[in-house]
Amino acid sequence: MKRVVIESPFAGDVEANVAYLRRAILDCLARGEAPYASHRFFPGILDDDNQEQRRLGMDAGFAWSAVAELVAVYADRGISQGMQQGIARATALGI
Length: 95
What we know:
Order of helices and strands: EHEHHEH
Structural class: alpha/beta
Number of strands: 3
């Protein structure tokens, strides 16, 4: 299985974005990929409204990009600022 970091929106309409993320994860699994979505994992542990904790979670998520084989951008609901950072990081790593 290829390791895939998922980039999709989270903030804003969190309920709709989480439902969208679930579909993105299922899409990756259907493709035989091993998806990872830090933006779903860390907000349950860290306070996304606290900028220091948000940055910590984002940095931890970005660390996974270094071992990912793909970064999948699910942009039907738009591209958030956090997604832009993840895309830039993946591009810099050549993923």
